[in-house]
Amino acid sequence: MNTPIYQRFTQDSLLDALQDTPVVLIHGSRQCGKTTLAQLIGERHGYHYITLDDDNSLVIEVKKGQGLNDLFSQFEALGITVTSMRNKSNRLEEMFISMVENNLERTGE
C-alpha cells in the first residue's frame, strides 16, 4: 500500500532558507509532516537529516508538582540510572552550536 505524499507548502521556503543558511530547524505541531519534508528535501538535495530522538534517550513527562527525588526513585526501582537530564531545548541548542562550530571549521572562519 503506497501512502500518498501531499504537497508541502513550506517546501519552497525551506529550500530558500537552505540557500544561505547551513542549519535550518523545522518546527511544527505533531504529525504535520516535518520529518517527511526534511527527509524528502535531504534525499533530493544531498542534505544531512538529524533528529533529536535517538535510541539512547528516554523521554518522559513529569507531572506538575512531581519532585525530582520521587522521579529518581521511580527510575531506580526500574533499574534505570540517570546520567543526564536535559530537555529538548537543551539538546537542540547543543546540536545547533555543534553544527555551527563544525561549519565554521570547514569554511575556515
Write up this protein.
With 109 residues, this protein is an all-alpha fold. It has 2 domains: 1-51, no CATH class; 60-109, no CATH class. Helix content is 46%, strand content 0%. The protein is built from 4 helices and no strands. The longest helix has 20 residues, at 88-107. It is extended and about 50 Å long. It starts with 10 loop residues before the first helix and ends with a helix. The mean pLDDT is 76.
Compact summary:
With 109 residues, the protein is mostly helical. It has helices at 11-18, 34-45, 68-77, 88-107. Helices cover 46% and strands 0% of the residues.
Structural class: mainly alpha
Number of domains: 2
Count all strands and give the number. 0
Taken in chain order, the helices and strands follow as HHHH
Largest sheet: none
Question: What helical percentage do the residues reach?
Answer: 40-55%
Count of helix runs: 4
- Return the average pLDDT rounded to an integer: 76
For the record, give the distance between the C-alpha atoms at the N and C termini, rounded to a whole number.
49 Å
Residues in β-strands, percent: under 5%
Shape, per Cα inertia axes: extended
